[in-house]
Amino acid sequence: MNCFDCTQERKDVSAVAVCCHCGTGICAEHMVLTTEEVHHDVGTGPSWGKRSARRATCRTCGGAEQESPAT
Length: 71
Ligand SMILES: [Zn+2]
Ligand SMILES: [Zn+2]
Description:
Elements: H1 4-8, E1 17-18, E2 25-26, E3 31-42, E4 45-58, H2 59-66
Bound molecules: zinc ion (2 copies).
């Protein structure tokens, strides 16, 4: 799979990850890496894991997530 954003720029770059939102291939340059806390449901109630999960998105989805919602 090639990077979707690079393809838009008529470049031919192999994707290193897949956007978890839109499913397009993304290269290292176009990848936005974020972490999120993993939610565990245990018997005594919800708790948060010590480790964060890795999340890779394309720039489009990463930028959309960082924008504050329109009011
Ligand atoms: Zn790219
Ligand atoms: Zn995306």
